[in-house]
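Q: I'm building a small set of examples for a reading group on sequence design. Run inverse folding on the following structure and report the sequence directly after it, with nothing in between.
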């Protein structure tokens, strides 16, 4: 077993799990490294990008940020590597970059559910190609309030 030196997630040989707790005495015995999500955060590697465009971005800015962060919490409970790299806002447009592609899709779907509009999903966008079939490719998702 390994432990992430930054977020203390545990690697059991198959996947990283941030919900498992290890007694402090045993932490010193484990090999330390960075988990996949922490490496991507450090290197600023975004595998998902959500482009949000709509009047609601300016009229309900605080609610929108809470909604995006809440979706991150929900997804992180399912998949520990679901994290937001950064959020940028300019007028009625917002860009959310994520360290995995599924979180980006889930955020856009939540916007469609809450505010209607239209989403478009572009898989394996330029800049990154999966190394093998099991690797995660990049995704860009565009949500528009007024299609």
């Amino acid at each position: 077993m390994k432990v992430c030196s930054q977020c203390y997630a545990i690697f059991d040989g198959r996947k990283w799990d941030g919900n498992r707790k290890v007694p402090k005495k045993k932490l010193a015995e484990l090999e330390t490294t960075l988990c996949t999500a922490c490496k991507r955060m450090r290197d600023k590697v975004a595998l998902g990008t959500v482009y949000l465009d709509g009047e609601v971005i300016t009229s309900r800015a605080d609610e929108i940020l809470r909604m995006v962060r809440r979706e991150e919490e929900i997804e992180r409970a399912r998949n520990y590597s679901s994290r937001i790299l950064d959020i940028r806002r300019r007028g009625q447009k917002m860009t959310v970059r994520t360290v995995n592609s599924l979180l980006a899709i889930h955020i856009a779907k939540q916007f469609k559910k809450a505010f209607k509009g239209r989403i478009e999903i572009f898989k394996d966008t330029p800049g990154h190609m999966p190394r093998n079939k099991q690797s995660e490719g990049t995704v860009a998702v565009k949500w528009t309030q007024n299609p």
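The mean pLDDT is 87.
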